[in-house]
Design a protein that fits this description.
Layout lengths: L10 H13 L4 H15 L6 H14 L5
Helix pairs in contact: 1-2
């Protein structure tokens, strides 16, 4: 189960994220999660590996079909 929370963003930031997410075939939520995970890795603060694998599997199942 994923943790829900309210995030307030400047509309221009949201619009930029929305375009970026569409370019990478992700939802805005998926894009934010991806960016946060990358930032955590870069900072040397990655979450538990099982959490990362679970998030990656969820992203794969959210990907559009090529059919």
């Amino acid at each position: 189960m994923k943790k829900r929370f309210l995030l307030r963003l400047d509309p221009a930031i949201y619009e930029a994220l929305e375009k970026w997410a569409a370019d990478e075939l992700r939802s805005v939520n998926g894009q934010i999660e991806y960016l946060l995970l990358e930032a955590l890795r870069k900072a040397g603060r990655p979450p538990d590996r099982s959490v990362v694998r679970k998030a990656e599997r969820a992203r794969e199942s959210d990907a559009p079909d090529d059919a």
